[in-house]
Write a structure and sequence with these properties.
The complex is a heterodimer of chains A (766) and B (162). Chain A folds into 3 domains: 166 residues, Aldehyde oxidase/xanthine dehydrogenase, molybdopterin binding domain (Aldehyde Oxidoreductase, domain 4, 2-Layer Sandwich), CATH 3.30.365.10; 182 residues, Alpha-Beta Complex (Aldehyde Oxidoreductase, domain 3), CATH 3.90.1170; 321 residues, Aldehyde Oxidoreductase, domain 4 (2-Layer Sandwich), CATH 3.30.365.10. Chain A has 19 helices and 30 strands. In chain A, strands 3-7-1-14-11-12-13 form a 7-stranded mixed β-sheet, sandwiched between helices. In chain A, a hairpin with a 5-residue loop joins strand 26 and strand 27. In chain A, helix 7 packs across helix 8 and helix 11 packs parallel to helix 18. Chain B is α+β, with helices and mostly antiparallel strands and 162 residues long. A 5-stranded mixed β-sheet of chain B has the order 2-1-5-3-4, sandwiched between helices. In chain B, helix 2 crosses helix 5. The longest helix of chain B is centred in the C-terminal third of the chain and has 14 residues. The chains are: A alpha+beta (766), B alpha+beta (162). Chains A and B meet through helix 2 and helix 17 of A and helix 2, helix 3, helix 4 and helix 5 of B.
């Protein structure tokens, strides 16, 4: 830990905490930003995958001879051609059982629709298309299991040898049975959420080439440049022989956390020695790339007569799809967030993730913190109703306070502004709109959430950053963050500009390069501002000290008499411009750059039973409110107005914070109302974008954001992470609003017309 | 025509400059613009006419470049997002989007801008509801649309047409 108290308690800032237009947006608006797919190299080849058309089969035969006859086809690779075809799994599983690997290219068996089987490399996309149909793969179809609960029953077809249980976690806190036996209020509910796709607009894409050092370079749309080690393993090279660069991304949302195009590009470059470009189609992306886990959640909740929560008994089953990817960790997040932002001393959670022949599940914004919100917010409403108390008051009465333990054992160490967030949204939501016809009903919904930020403690997370001065007084930051579109890079520039008292424009940031920028970890887990921001803050503070030291050496003034100010160092004799300060440092043997690593708090790994003093670094809390209108004839739900409030500790850039929250709300509205991937016995039927209904501008309401600043996060300048948290409450907010409108609450996502019409019938207000 | 499977010489006026190149009959406008004219600002997001990232103006009307064939626009005027700024200086619409934080990942922005320009030039009274309806063919996964809608309304209020 390298942060200092001085800057953390700074009360006034010039650049940080200001709504400054993002530095990257300017060039993006001019159309000049080069995304990974916007790079072409003379002489490049093109690569494409042949994917399994069936969800479960033994591969009987493969033959590339006809495809190789197509003019322009350079190579066709099968699994045997991959130096290390097994991709080791790095997720949490169950005790005593090794997790199965996934495969770069399937050799003996395919386990999901769209699994890669062969890689074609050719001179042109046209040749690829012609060759694809000619790569002959013969499949012997095997039984399919596509329901996670059926997959866990004895006798189910095995996706991997040894049974279909991938991972399970438990929380067992207090005396749950006794609490239920004695409680005056017990409420029960079952909830279900669907598979959804990230649907970022920039497809999975990249280009690779071999450089003069024999390093395979890959420029790709990825949230994780440090896959270079994995890629090197796959192609059988030392880690140092693969370099990954991530230019600005056209969205990620977790879908570019696992590798996508990178290993295939590396293989093709290795095989041909030529530059190779790979772009997945939207149809491939929808069919085969990892998705958000669908879940079934069964809750029993006990409460005192006044609505004080006494106990939860929770059973959750998640569909992990065909390979482990990050499912074990996502399930851990589902488990540790299962009871929400409310104090409860008796909690039992049993969660299981099952293999099926569906598309693998993995990271998606919210990462398991999202799914349970639908359930715990419905449960607390049922408790309030049973107690005859106001739902808002019951939430406030049960909300965590500093010092409480979450059911998984960790103490809450920073402010819990849940009541403040609730007050903010209820004040901002305004008067109830009139329904547009006698057949319409308007309802108000409210939901809260908690979402951790930063990685799980036993990942021993760290981020490094380098900050230096040029001789002209300019400032350079080098930090290996991938910028997925959330303004990660711009925020680092703000932090450096703040500490070093320079304008934003004189800070240049080099980012996202595994060979040439200090490694800062993946842009996931709402960790980049927290981790890299702390690293840049620390390095900039170190550099500030060095700059003062250099002036002290030359002028003979004690450092205590010197301060960094706008334009340079303020001395009793006037301001020394930064360029001269740099010269003074160099003349007196003081470095003009600093590199620092920020280490997150660590903790012992937990296995199966989740009970630990330290699981995550900290939490972000929020509340959302919305008006919806329900058409009681059609079951259509239309959000009319939406307000979201989150305590972000301190907003480094309020403009970016607002953008993250508004964007998450719309992604959450899609999750709540329209988006789903549909399977028929493992066959993914949602293979085109027109079949996947993400909300358009015309579908979305006005969205107002309230940014609350408790000043108590663990990020730079007391910031909290905000990338993932605001997607959490949306579905619960809209479910609550539908209930207010028609008298019964949808418990299954998305809230399709038939679900809502059933609520209309049940509610009896049509 | 150069024979074979059908390749036609295609000439368009792209952002004010004449561009001529061969276009196989099945080549979409978005691919032709990127590959032949190096107009990388035109993005491909779905190749099926759903997402709108490849929206350009063809003779002043918004069209998705993935559902338009290059040979169809021979002789036409095509405008992309690269035509809007005046050198380093953003157009009034772009400036509103920039100030408002309405370009995040920036990928949908290229098509979104052109649909918005079509609206601004139309002379229609621009309200938030009109903007939302007009932009419904341009998907955005980052911003939640609110900042974009606000920026277009603000730009219209100042009489911007680009």
């Amino acid at each position: 830990m390298t942060e200092t108290l001085s800057s953390r308690t700074a009360s006034t800032t010039r650049v940080v905490n200001q709504a400054v237009p993002r530095r990257d947006s300017h060039e993006k608006l001019r159309g000049r930003t080069r995304y990974a797919g916007d790079v072409d190299i003379a002489g490049q080849l093109h690569a494409r995958l042949v994917r399994s058309p069936v969800p479960s089969a033994r591969i009987v035969a493969r033959d590339a001879s006809a495809a190789l006859q197509v003019p322009g086809v350079v190579a066709v690779l099968f699994g045997e051609d991959v130096p290390n075809n097994e991709i080791p799994t790095n997720t949490a599983g169950i005790k005593g059982r090794p997790l199965p690997p996934s495969w770069v290219l399937a050799v003996e068996r395919v386990r999901y629709h769209g699994e890669p089987v062969a890689l074609i490399v050719a001179e042109s996309p046209r040749a690829l298309a012609a060759a694809e149909a000619l790569v002959e793969v013969e499949y012997d179809v095997l039984p399919v299991v596509s329901d996670p609960e059926r997959a866990l029953e004895p006798g189910s077809p095995e996706v991997h040898e040894g049974g279909n249980l991938l991972s399970q976690w438990r929380i067992d806190r207090g005396d749950v049975d006794r609490a239920f036996a004695e409680a005056p209020i017990v409420v029960e509910g079952s909830y279900e959420a669907q598979v959804v796709d990230h649907a970022y607009l920039e497809l999975e894409t990249g280009i690779g080439w071999l450089d003069d050092e024999g390093v395979i370079n890959i420029k790709a749309s990825t949230q994780e440049i440090e896959h270079y080690r994995r890629i090197a393993h796959i192609v059988g090279l030392p880690d140092s022989k693969v370099r990954v660069q991530a230019p600005y991304l056209g969205g990620g949302f977790g879908g570019k956390e696992d590798m996508t195009v990178e290993p295939y590009i590396a293989l093709a470059v290795q095989r041909t020695g030529r530059p190779v470009k790979m772009v997945w189609s939207r149809q491939e992306s929808l069919t085969a790339r990892a998705k958000r886990h669908p879940v079934r959640m069964r809750y029993r909740t006990a409460a005192a007569a006044d609505g004080t929560l006494l106990a939860h008994d929770i059973e959750i089953v998640s569909d992990a799809g065909a390979y482990p990817l990050l499912s074990g960790f996502v399930l851990l997040y589902i488990t540790l967030n299962a009871a929400g932002p409310y104090r409860c001393d008796n909690v039992r959670v049993h969660s299981r993730a099952a293999y099926t022949n569906n598309t693998p599940g993995s990271a998606f914004r919210g990462f398991g913190g999202m799914q349970p919100v639908l359930a715990y917010e419905a449960q607390i409403d049922r408790v309030a109703d049973a107690a005859g108390r106001d739902r808002v008051e019951v939430r406030k009465a049960n909300a965590f306070v500093v010092g409480d333990r979450i059911p998984a054992g960790q103490r809450i160490e920073t402010a819990v502004w849940l009541p403040q967030c609730i007050d903010a949204v209820l004040e901002a939501i305004g008067p109830r709109p009139e329904p547009s016809s006698p057949e319409h009903r308007v309802g108000l919904g409210l939901a809260c959430n908690v979402q951790p930020y930063g990685r799980v403690a036993w990942m021993n997370d760290s981020a490094s950053a380098w900050v230096g001065c040029e001789r002209d007084g300019g400032v350079v930051v080098r930090c290996g963050v991938p910028d997925v579109g959330g303004g990660q890079v711009s925020s680092l520039a703000q932090i450096a500009a703040e500490v070093l008292h320079v304008p934003m424009d004189s800070v240049t940031v080099h980012f996202g390069d595994s060979a040439r920028t200090p490694l800062a970890g993946r842009t996931t887990a709402t960790r980049q501002l927290y981790m890299s921001g702390n690293a840049v803050l620390s390095a900039a503070e170190e550099l500030r000290g060095q700059l003062l030291e250099g002036v002290a050496q030359v002028t003979g003034q004690p450092v205590s008499e010197l301060t960094l100010t706008e334009g340079g160092v303020l001395t009793p004799g006037g301001v020394v411009p930064l360029a001269e300060v740099v010269a003074m440092c160099l003349a007196s043997g003081v470095a003009i750059n600093a590199m620092r690593t920020y280490f997150a708090p660590t903790g012992e790994p937990v296995t199966e039973l989740v009970d630990s003093e330290r699981i995550v670094p900290d939490f972000t809390f929020g509340a959302h409110a919305a008006y919806v209108e329900v058409d009681t004839r059609t079951g259509q739900v239309r959000p009319l107005r939406y307000v979201a409030a989150h305590d972000v500790g301190r907003a480094i850039n309020p403009l970016s914070v607002r953008g993250q929250i508004q964007g998450a709300v719309v992604q959450g509205i899609g999750y709540a109302l329209t988006e789903r991937i549909v399977y028929d016995e493992g066959v993914n039927l949602t293979g085109a974008f027109y079949q996947y209904a993400i909300p358009t501008a015309a579908d979305c309401p006005e969205i107002e954001v309230a940014i609350l600043e408790s000043g108590e996060g663990v990020g730079p300048f007391h910031a909290r992470g905000i990338g993932e948290p605001p997607i959490g409450p949306c579905a619960a907010t809209l479910a609550s609003a539908v209930e207010d409108a028609v008298g019964a609450r949808p418990a299954t996502l998305p809230m399709l017309a038939e679900t809502v019409l059933a609520c209309v019938d049940q509610g009896g207000r049509a | 025509m150069t024979g074979g499977m059908g390749t036609a010489e295609t000439t368009i006026t792209l952002n004010g400059a004449k561009v001529t190149g061969q276009a196989p009959a099945d080549t979409t406008l978005v691919r032709w613009l990127r590959e032949q004219a190096h107009a990388y600002e035109v993005k491909e997001g779905c190749n099926e006419g759903t997402c709108g990232t490849c929206t350009v103006l063809v003779d002043g009307r918004a069209a998705t470049g993935c559902t338009t064939l290059a040979v169809q626009v021979d002789g036409a005027t095509v405008e992309t997002s690269a035509s809007l700024a005046d050198g380093e200086e953003l157009s009034p619409l772009q400036a509103k989007i920039w100030e408002n934080g309405a370009a995040q990942c920036g990928f949908c922005t290229q098509g979104m801008l052109m649909s918005a320009v079509e609206l601004l030039r139309s002379g229609v009274e621009v309200t938030p509801a009109v903007v939302r309806e007009h932009l419904h063919g341009n998907l955005c996964r980052c911003t939640g649309y609110q900042a974009i809608v606000d920026a277009v309304v603000d730009a219209a209020a100042e009489g911007a047409t680009r």
